[in-house]
């Protein structure tokens, strides 16, 4: 969502009036006499120490414009983060799709990372936990999805340690096999092992883990 470029006012201009905007109480309109200069957020008012009597020249005006663009991106990203955790790359793609400029997106993401609003390590751990516990995705599928989100491989491996235990993998494979029981049993006996094996591979489990468990799983659903 590219904003419509503001018409540059006649500068320099001294602020004679600061008015709270009707639709957003955290934004202010700055005026020189009755001539509008620019609309800014409350944070920008504080950051640049803007007050009645402040003179806005061309240099300050450009700084305010750039700060406003960053502010808009930051507010958009915070709205997304208020709904659920996101990885940095996810946020960047969504902001680009909205039409925001790469420079302002990167600046805003870096700022939010420094303040702890965006934490890719924490995101990787939560994503891994949720996909394994609720969707029964295997480690390979989880890893592939996190790589798509540009999560660092070190963070991925640390996150996967929590689910890559023999007991957890075994329980997850048993759960999936039982859910697939009706469809597997409709197959001829000689095809059942391959069908179950292929299904578990698609769910993201490692070949060696499945191989260790496949006979037990098949016996379990055929009993």
Descriptive report:
This protein has 223 residues and is mainly alpha-helical. The chain is built from eleven helices and five strands, in the order ββββαβαααααααααα. Strands 2-3-4 form a three-stranded antiparallel sheet. A two-stranded antiparallel ribbon has the order 1-5. It is rod-shaped and about 85 Å long.
Q: Tags for this entry?
A:
mainly alpha; three-stranded antiparallel β-sheet; 4 domains; Arc Repressor Mutant, subunit A; 62% helix
Main structural class: mainly alpha
Radius of gyration: 27 Å
Strand line-up in the sheet with most strands = 2-3-4
| Shape category | rod-shaped
Please indicate the count of domains: 4
**Beginning-to-end CA distance, first to last residue:** 59 Å
Measured by DSSP, the beta-strand proportion falls in 5-15%
How many strand elements? 5
Q: What string, H for helix and E for strand, traces the elements in order?
A: EEEEHEHHHHHHHHHH
What is the percent of helical residues? 55-70%
